Records
---
Amino acid sequence: MVQLAELLKSEKTKIVDVRSHQEFMGGHVAGSINIPLNEIPQHLDEFRKMEHIVLCCASGGRSGQATMFLKQNGIECFNGGSWTDVNYYKNN
């Protein structure tokens, strides 16, 4: 299994923050994109085009739900947990 810290350092990895737009605007991982949890089903085609996907949110709960949903739809992805943890591992 790929180590999350290594995955986050790859330029091919897309970090997807599944918090609300308002939460995302309050702070997020540089370079991440915001697709709120309730909008994930409408973005399946976009997810299928991504090579490596790490999902994050405030605590890991919503990103865990998004990870399960995407995996059920055949999309390989990882739950990175909280966006602050993802930010730390990406930059250290």
---
Amino acid sequence: MSKILITGGLGFIGHHLAINLSQKGHKITVLDNLSRPISNIIISSKIKDKNYNWEYLDEFHPKIEKKIIDIRDREKVTAIIQNFKPEIIIHAAGQTSAVGSIENPRFDFENNIIGLFNILNSAKESQIVTDFLYISTNKVYGNNVSNIPLIEGKTRYIPEEKKFTGFSETLSVDHSIHTPYGVSKLAGDLYVQEFGKIYGMKNTVFRLSCIYGDQQFGIPGQGFISYMFLNAISGKPIQIYGNGKQVRDILYIDDLSNLVERYLASTSSLNPKIFNQKSRVYNIGGGINNTISLLELIGKFESILGKKIEIEFSNWRLGDQKLYISDLTKIYSEFGWKPNINPEQGIERLTNWIEKSKDIFFN
């Protein structure tokens, strides 16, 4: 078993990865600066000033070590890596909102570029870390995904090309509107690739589409499925930017956790010197068989709640993608992985968790 350091380990993705890998016997330490405490997300005053994920790990997974560290602090980052001596680092920390990055680009830059560089360079200098996995995003492609011809259907955009299976890792990242978030994640993405090639590190990039699941505290601009359902059950109108026909491939968090576990097991014996001779960049999402539009998602909410949901439409947001679907050909061919949880199952799981956890969200 390995010693694994997970940055952003109290966020949605990092939290789930930490639990899954700990249950498989790995020794896990998570880093987080609590910059997005749950008390700023929830509605209920019952758990004000508490961090839900922190207390959840305390109660149910006490073997996971938690450290409050801001990855922008280079000296503290270096110290924790030297002391813990991780063999694997999963970098899931960072500013995650495209909307937030437009409002505060400096905060986005410092977290997503300086923070990433501190972790990555300290990993290189440690000469202990054998695998570095960077959680990136499809936003690195910007609106280049808009270059394919689309048909506007009743509830969604549809690719004109009938054999379309999604966007591959070869899609251009140039000459595109990304938002500062997309730019900062792309910079980190490229740094991770370059360090692998130049310094012989086993570095890999996962460019994620929309990840969702239980224990996701959605906010505007991030975690849209949980955020929209919270609005629906509270009787608030759901805000849609554009016409609601934009399509995303969605991946349930358990499927991502299983992929990371399989990936680490498959690469553990590979020689670092030849590891990055192949491009270790993968598009990860639900793929062509697990897509949904915003209008279709609201329709599912209406069926679950048995009521009509009010919608408020606004102008399109800068850099919004009308359709994004991950081509999973590469990840499947190299690791035999594909999603197991379809949107119907995943949305039911998420909404059931929110319904059962109303004390977290409402008084």
---
Amino acid sequence: MASNEKGNPPATLEPQVVKKLLDLLSSDDNFRDLFQRDADAALVQAGYVAPAENALKSTMTESTAPSAGSCLQMMAGASLASKEAIMQERAKLEQTLNAIQHFTCPPELQSD
């Protein structure tokens, strides 16, 4: 499990955000392009709301708190898996994305 400099794990994504994210990644070309360029903006479009500042401060400082989008941002040169592959791996992706993020985009979201 990855953690930040203070040893705190990053926040999880809400299940409804995960569902919306995967719905859009498996159906919407414009959203897929946005996700590849800016995962933070794509998550906001999918309904992600960053934890409240006071809740965030109770577990980590703002400067060490990873954003959900930075955890999912694809590495330069990586490509997003096809819509069909995302649909095929949906159950596994939901499980992975509902767990603590590991500071990397899940391999099931990337093409081979």
---
Amino acid sequence: MTGPFDPITIDGIRIRNRFMRSATWDGTATDDGGVTDASVKIFEGVARGGVGLIVTGYAYVSEQGRPAAGHGQYGVSEDRHIGGLQRLVKAAHDHDAKIALQIAHAGIAVGPFRRGDLVALAPSRIEGLTSPHRALTSLEIEEIVSDFGAAAARARDAGFDAVQLHAAHGYLMSQFLSPPTNRRTDKWGGTAEGRRRFHVEVMRSIRRAVGEAYPIWMKLGLQDHSDGGLQLSEGLDALKVLTAEGLSAVEVSTGRVAGAARVGKPGDEERPYFRSDSAEAKRVVDIPIMLVGGIRSLSMAEDILGRGDADMISMCRPLIREPGLIARWQRGDTAPAKCISCLKCMGLPLRGEPLECAEERRLREEATGG
């Protein structure tokens, strides 16, 4: 039976255990997407804390695809970003963790970060959406496809063990796959095959840019969990097609809807939100499946792996509060994560502050009278 502390090898990369830090926006990058000392400190802490694999918070592949200008988001859109990104790789590798760079384009999902008179780009006009946006032209789509390839090459050159495409949480790749946000009638939409064409072409662009051996992974929303949105059957069909194109690992999450209603609240019983989707993915493809969302205890991780519902356990918020959680569990202190799922940590980068656990900050301030 597979256990949480058993190693796993993906694409020839030996990962020391089955735990990974899911991509997490940490708000520490410079205004032009560069890595800072604060960024390096976060990655060192998580790597030292025992996780086998770290995935960075998403790095934008082009300026137009950047949702959080001025809010500390990493960039991989230009060669000048490579030097800083190498520092993140070193921070992970120095402590025996592997690291993947997550790359993405926001599309319409610039949200509250929309800059000035920016008109967001989307697969098609979105019914009921009042914020300025327009449909991408075919030429613009092809340019973005090329941007992904160039970004992946920079990730390889920076020394990342793999690249992870962000095809979840309502960003551009989700928008292409989801029927409500892709109403195109050309080759980039119209049918299930058309809606997933962007994913296929992005993967082919990356393969041309990095060669046959470099690992391409993906965070994929297998369904939208909303009426009229992407359904699980179509998401699984897309996963099968992408696996045939060379996708070699997938982290299962949610699609166009960011899943706010599915995220645990303080005091909730532990509930891995996407476990059934992960189990379905395991049934249809023979690549490593990573499960994220709502996992708070070693016993739950053991159950998921032991039942074969996933191959790796991905966590975000528990590792914000306890970067050393995995090492603690491995030492024998198997108390559940201290994270109470309050989500307040995510509000800090929105205010221009580096990511940290808001509950730990509150306790620290109370102790010091701050």
